[in-house]
Design a protein that fits this description.
The protein is an alpha+beta fold and 297 residues long. It contains five helices and twelve strands. Strands 3, 4, 6, 7, 8, 9, 11 and 12 form an eight-stranded antiparallel sheet that branches.
């Protein structure tokens, strides 16, 4: 027999012996040290030990998986968020976004409706929100001091520091310097309660009407109540309405500069037209503004 065959036979014999040793049982016992007596023993093979270990791990995995799937044990862990919590947070965020979008859409619809009514020669509806007056609220828990009462009166009164003015109006006032469209005497002042959304100015019939600021002519309409009207879109969403004009000197879509001629109060050839005062209205965000708050007449 050749040497190669002998080595091959030894290799397979070694593997066979290792496989038998894997399943051969060993005696595991506990012996009393004092008298050398055996107190407990068991027969266990390496293969049996590996099988028992794997079985224990599988049983533990099944138990842990069952606890996680069918019990709220994970909610006891700090920082853990369940699918219900994440869904609830996502739902709240979507509700907040929808509420914001609804408010913006309502404001846009109000603005568009007022523009349409203005172009039709009608008076837009002014929507005012009643703000709470803290000077009339109960202050039982915290009694106000003299300084606090003076500060509240200054901030909530009719002074220049009144916090109840619309933020958009303050922004327009601070960012735009407007000029008077015509020279004359104011005969009727701005009053929402009485339905006057602008001011009336008595001027000469041949007076020039100029633009209060740079902008673009967006409409030119006529109505029996307000005569010829020009709507000019100025900066910061400010719309100016010039009423009771003669034939306009500008066209729709034309860009105008501050002080540029828009028309006259009465045509030079006509002597039978009804004399009407010049009316100027200012609108921002669908709300009327008092022209005297922005223009020095």
């Amino acid at each position: 027999m050749s040497r190669k065959k002998i080595e091959t036979m030894k290799f397979f014999t070694k593997i066979s012996n290792s496989w038998r040793n894997l399943f051969r049982k060993r005696r595991v016992s506990l012996t009393n040290v004092s008298d050398g007596t055996e107190e407990w023993h068991m027969h266990l093979s390496p293969a049996g030990l590996v099988t028992a270990t794997l079985s224990f791990l599988i049983v533990m995995f099944i138990l842990v998986l069952t606890l996680v799937a069918y019990s709220p044990v994970l909610e006891m862990l700090p920082g853990f968020r369940s699918d219900a919590d994440r869904s609830r947070e996502s739902l709240m965020q979507n509700i907040i976004r929808l509420d914001s979008m609804e408010r913006v859409m309502a404001q846009m619809m109000t603005y568009n409706e007022n523009i349409a009514m203005i172009m039709a020669g009608k008076s837009p509806v002014a929507r005012t929100v009643q703000l709470a007056d803290s000077t009339r609220q109960s202050k039982i828990l915290v009694m106000p001091s003299v300084e606090d009462s003076l500060l509240r009166a200054q901030m909530e009164g009719e002074g220049p520091y009144n916090l109840q003015h619309d933020a958009a109006r303050r922004a327009v006032r601070e960012s735009i310097e407007l000029i008077a469209p015509v020279e004359g005497i104011i005969t009727e002042r701005f009053s929402i309660e009485e339905g006057r959304f602008g001011i009336s100015i008595a001027a000469d019939n041949s007076d020039r009407v100029t633009a209060i600021d740079e902008g673009t002519v967006i409409a030119s309409v006529w109505s029996p109540d307000a005569g010829q009207q020009l709507l000019v879109q100025h900066r910061n969403q400010l719309v100016a309405i010039y009423k009771n004009l003669a034939e306009p000197a500008v066209a729709i879509g034309q860009a105008v500069r501050a002080g540029e001629l828009l028309g006259h109060l009465k045509s030079e050839q006509s002597t039978t037209e009804e004399e009407r005062p010049f009316i100027l209205e200012l609108w921002s965000g669908g709300k009327p503004l008092d022209p005297e708050a922005y223009i020095v007449f």
